[in-house]
Design brief:
2 domains; four-stranded antiparallel β-sheet; 27% strand
Length: 188
């Protein structure tokens, strides 16, 4: 098996540890935060979206679900208001064999001690994400802050872990498409 981690080039001169399990019985490889970043409270991001929606359309009944918002509208507002869930870099990429993926999960103590969770619950890093042309396969965590105040993450903080998994493909269902981008590039 040729699974290994390495730093992406933009962090080549930064002292970051290569992910390793914490103990001999650990399933996950612990990742650290690659650069200082502030994680705003989720309520702040939600308020930005809510204010935009209700200030511009005070007569619509979003609460009663008569006038729901489409995914395209949410994406547009998120981009316009810069209200996206922060992406926290690990500074790492992971080489995987075909038929493998890296599951990115929170360390079990992170939500318990720090009120931080992953925005997508778990992240799936595909084997063809490694060395993609957009970002070299840089692994990011989408971090949601459940606290009522911002949290400063510092380089070296441990939040997430990666677990290598094997997977199968249904008969006749293997894709022949090739990855052409980085984060979120396999679909909308």
């Amino acid at each position: 098996m040729s699974v290994y981690f390495e730093k992406v080039s933009r962090f080549s001169d930064v002292d970051l540890p290569i992910p390793t399990p914490s103990t001999s019985g650990s399933a996950g490889y612990d990742f650290v935060v690659a650069e200082d970043i502030v994680i705003p409270p989720m309520d702040f991001l939600m308020d930005k979206l809510r204010d935009k929606l209700f200030d511009n359309n005070p007569d619509k009944d979003y609460w009663g679900f008569i006038d729901p918002v489409t995914l395209d509208e949410v994406a547009s507002m998120t981009k316009e208001l810069k209200a996206k869930i922060p992406l926290v870099s690990t500074g790492m990429k992971c080489h995987l064999d075909p038929g493998q993926y890296l599951e990115l999960s929170m360390r079990s103590s992170t939500p318990l001690k720090h009120w931080l969770i992953l925005g997508n619950s778990i992240g799936i890093i595909d084997s063809d994400y490694y060395n993609n042309p957009d970002n070299e396969g840089e692994i990011f965590a989408q971090i949601i802050n459940l606290l009522p105040f911002s949290v400063q993450l510092k380089r070296g903080d441990r939040l997430v872990q990666g677990i290598v998994h094997n997977y199968g493909v249904a008969e006749g269902e293997a894709s022949t498409n090739e990855r052409v981008g980085g984060f979120g590039s396999t679909g909308n």
